[in-house]
Design brief:
Blueprint: H1 2-19, E1 22-25, E2 31-37, E3 40-46, E4 52-58, E5 71-78, E6 82-90, E7 103-111, E8 118-127, E9 133-142, E10 147-154, E11 163-169, E12 175-176
């Protein structure tokens, strides 16, 4: 009787944890999963050695605790080396309906060539709460030069002013000067 109870409990826990995740297919054909956990997002990523690892990444206070990403997009992938993602969440509500339907968006560069994947760079791309707005197109990846061009209508730290930024990604996933 006890074995049946514990087995049922284990099956239910597995189902509930799996149902809280979403997946996205990478251009290489591999798949990643993602979910929200407290004030973090958890990505389940394959590394270059064929194993899946969980990577916790920070969000900021403009995203409510426990929120799952509303979208995760692959900006670029260099198989078994670098993954560039954009993840978005609903903004926390503010008084007088401020940002009720807003969105918070982040850019993440993840090195997958190591034994365990690590986030090597992150940046806020868009925010209803912080008045950060991407232009169209906001992100452009150049696979030949491993550069990412970002175009803002309202830049981070300089609300209301446009900015263009180019980030060159090194072979280890680190941005180069």
């Amino acid at each position: 009787m006890r074995i049946r109870f514990w087995l049922s409990t284990l099956c239910l826990a597995t189902y509930l944890s799996a149902s809280g995740q979403s997946t996205i297919r990478l251009p290489s054909g591999k798949e990643i999963a993602y979910s929200g956990s407290g004030s973090d997002t958890v990505f389940t990523l394959p590394n270059a050695h064929g194993r899946d690892f969980r990577l916790r990444v920070d969000r900021d206070a403009t995203v409510a605790n426990g929120q799952r990403p509303t979208s995760v997009k692959v900006v670029a992938e260099i198989p078994d080396s670098i993954l560039v993602l954009s993840d978005a969440y609903p903004s926390i509500p503010g008084g007088m309906a401020y940002c009720q339907a807003g969105e918070e968006q982040f850019l993440r560069v993840i090195s997958t060539s190591r034994k365990r994947p690590i986030e090597t760079y992150h940046l806020k791309l868009a925010s209803c709460r912080d008045n950060i707005e991407l232009a169209t197109p906001g992100l452009t990846w150049s696979p030949q030069t491993h550069t990412l061009d970002i175009h803002w209508l309202s830049a981070p730290g300089d609300a209301g002013h446009p900015e263009n930024r180019t980030i060159k990604i090194g072979p280890d996933g680190q941005p180069l000067p």
